[in-house]
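Hi R.,

Here are the chain sequences for the assembly we discussed:
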Amino acid sequence: MAVTAEPKVDLREPASWRRTKNRIVTALMYFALVLVIVPLGFVLFTVISKGASIISGQFLTAAIPPQVLPGGIGGMGPAVVGTLEITGLATLMAVPLGVLGAVYLNEYGGRNLLARLIGFFSDVMTGVPSIVMGLFIYAIWVVHFGFSGLAGAFALACLMLPVVIRSSDEMLKLVPNALREGSYALGATRARVTLTVVLPTAIGGIVSGALLAVARAAGETAPLLFTILTVTATNTNVFSGANTSLPSQIFSNAILPYSGAQSRAWGAALTLIAIAFILMIVARVITARFTRLGR
Amino acid sequence: MSTVTSAERAAPAGALSERRPLGDRVFQILALAAGLLVLVILVLIAESTSQQATSWFSSEGFSGIFSVAWNPAAGKFGAMAFVYGTVISSAIAVVLAVPVSVAIALLLTEVVSRRWARPIVYVIDLLAVVPSVVWGLWGILVFVPWLNGIYSSIGSGVKGTPVVGNLFGPQTSGASFFTAGIVLAFMITPIVTSLSREVIATVPAIDREGAYALGATRLEMIRGAVWPHSQGGIVGAVLLGLGRAMGETIAVALVIGSSAQITSHLLAPGDSMAAVIASEFGEASGVFRAGLIGLGVLLFVLTIFINILARSVVARSTRRARGA
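And here is the predicted structure of the full complex:
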């Protein structure tokens, strides 16, 4: 969408009230941008400066100490392990299902009622609060099978599913129809065309969409509260027993009055933001490459 | 499947007659199942959470649920204080975030060149990547202590003034409805901005050029050509932002003050539905726990309703935009 610039040659009377008003409003638009960027910069600065003073290789691997101890002791090792396990498992569940769902919407459903219904409710499902997803998995899984990393992964996967469906759907729509027609003309079945022509063409966009969904899920706390039951010990078995994660530890440390606990929370926050930013940058790089190749 | 209309996706010609290979049919069934999963999950959410909340519905009854009294020790579990907190804090967030978001969306589409728009979009998207719990941590340890002083001077300044005194008067606390509203405003700005930008981008270039050709300034062009065209879509974007704000949990739980009360004082501590579930679920059992899950059911119904409304508004306005 090209910006339609204001005309260069201007025959209107100079410095009228109309043009002053125009300038005031333009200035207000820039001011709105400042209103958003300054607090964002302040938050990032606080997290980086407070987090950087505690973070180290030892912080990322050491056990979580009793919270009354000062900041230099121990670290967030179990939470890092938990976040990687739970988010990884959630990704393994949500991404294949989400891509398959998008394939249904795009390659099979077309514009029939069911496909439109599923598309519409995927959008609606992105708006379901994350805490409701946590309660849902609590009610359907934890009540019967107990707390585990698996339950947390189910909750995160439910949050990621509609996001992956929507972003993959957008990417599949961009695949030129001529590619499909050409493949069908050679006698290929629909499954073969989808798997060997359509998906490989759209793979860059699908991966970057999925990475953004993972970045968002890694920072979620609310769905994990009632599914993994935040503990402080490392649990390498994601399928059973209570577990922990970086966001859950930040939440439980934030309300403690001890300065050591708080500085560990800042360190965990920096780790979490770093993970999310790295995923986001990788996604951007993939998108940039993909669009250059695609057009 | 085999109906041929002009804009339809290409389909294999063999679909009309021959038997398709097993793998092909299995793949179709898998894709269909994945799509149906969305509907199944939504139904299961409603079914399983309401089932866990039945003891709340049955022990409190209709009037108990819609009462203000919330006192777990006395066995009173009325939801209204939390509904009030959710509505007030998200309303503040929407009032603060919408003008800013729409202004940024207009800036990006109508003022700055494409070369500058891209980095600005990246920065706005960073807001969405900062996790809720990090906003909460910053809120409770940095923002709330800083606001304490400001709020109390505002509070004593407006004391006794008619309307303003009731809204911003004393009993102030750094952790309050208003603080939650400010933090929520930051969190919903990216989504409202990006949706508004999408809507504004659908305004036909010819409308803009026409307005400029008539001698309009940029502001007049926006009011005459962009605004009438994108009004509906922006309303949808605002509703989606409202839905997000209502469901936001952790940041709100940390900065709203955790005090179940209904008051006109926006600078006083309160509580919201999502926040109370997060902060009290661990200690709750029996009817208390059922009550918290019940609050989740109410929240689900509320946000689903708002999201369906928002998506319908957005869908209708983009359809109209394409048709025009």
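Residues 130 and 256 of chain A are 24 Å apart (CA to CA). The mean pLDDT of chain A is 89.

Let me know if anything looks off.

Best,
T.
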